[in-house]
Amino acid sequence: MFLGHYGLAFGAKKIAPKVSLLTLFVAVEFVDILWPFLLLLDVEKVKIHPGFTAVTPFEFVHYPFTHSLVMGVVWGLVCGGIYWLFQKDIRSSIIVGLAVLSHWFLDFIVHVPDLPLTPFGGIKVGIGLWNSLPLTMLVESAIFIAGVWIYFKNTRAINGKGKWGLFSLIGFFVIAEIFNMFGPPPEDSIPALLGSFVVLQAIVLGLAYFTDQNRETI
Fold first, then answer.
1. What is the CB neighbour count within 10 angstroms for residue 57?
2. Domain parsing of the chain, residue ranges
3. Which region is the signal sequence (predicted)?
């Protein structure tokens, strides 16, 4: 899932108005941000297998330290704890931790049965929505649109940058999603995969920071 994670982050701004959109974006994507670095270190493994599912060519062979349910809980506690150390805001810290954990549950909807429950067990689960391109687009779009709408209704631009920043962020997501769905498969190279992922995250997080800095909660 791509748009769905960010849609949840947008929507979470309503219940966590003190948490920046940048922080929420990092939280919902924390394990995906960590994942390519573990690939580079050969701790986790993925194969590029065009046609593996209708949506993604990634065959996730081994990624228990980023994408198992148990480690999702651990990473949620770690990130929520770090946020509390800096902000001393227990409510916001809980939301940040839950945002990190939410990644596993949204992935559970779209992944084929390749999501581990524990780092060392053999049980893997996944509903497999990625086997249907139309259903994937419908579900992801619904979550994203709902989240953006909640964010839009609960914040307001304090200047033109806040207005056009949000439009630019949404536009980038739409373009990235179209490319993800219909573009060519990525290079079968971990360094190339890491490079493209870093660029994508840098753009998304930069736009999130710029947008949220120029909007205020209502």
1. 16
2. 3-217
3. none
